[in-house]
Amino acid sequence: MDIDKTQLVKEFGLSVSRLAHRMIHNQELAKEAAQEVWVEIIRSIGSFQGNSEISTWIYSVAKRTILRYAEAERTYTTMEINNHFELEPIDCDGAEGEKRQWVKEKCDYCLTAFCHCLNNDARLIFLFREIAGLHYEQIGHIMNLKEENIRQILTRSREKVRHFMNNNCVIYNPQGNCKCRIRKHVMAVDLDKEYNNLSKAAELVAFYQKFDKELPQKNYWEKIISEVVTE
Length: 231
Fold this sequence. Notes:
This protein is mainly alpha-helical and 231 residues long. It is globular. The chain has twelve helices and no strands.
């Protein structure tokens, strides 16, 4: 089967990078994982027989690789996450004009941390749905689970992530008793007002997608992909 490798990268590269970014808190490991996903995809694309959607095959490769890297991390307990927000406030080291970007990057870091209240499989299912936008049947095929189980896991995962964000994110819940370490900076740059239309009543996916669109795109594969494609 003749498949355009470069087109695959253009179509799925950013999505795989976002999965690695949200799945793995250590961003050096996330970058390495995303790059390895593409090395594996490009080198084994000849084995794809067309028995499933090409996207299902790609995300199955991503699942195996990213989960292996995620083993180096662990699920955070409720106490650990809450203790983090009890730490001393932190300040922006950059110029005043850079503060808004700094605040968004810190909030983006927290969005990844909130996902870690889920175990690795549940977190990946959550991200396949919320970040990659895969349908339930496709996720079930990738994870080797029934669609009914995927729906159950996803429902519980959404509730758990929403619970942590409701308690600890002043942007997600401006009326909450958030003790965020950068709360005063979030308020100073009016980030809570900017995200007002994405309040806790909104779908989590809208929250994650807004950060993904506004912050610099994390195309972790760009450095190595030209070498791999031309092999």
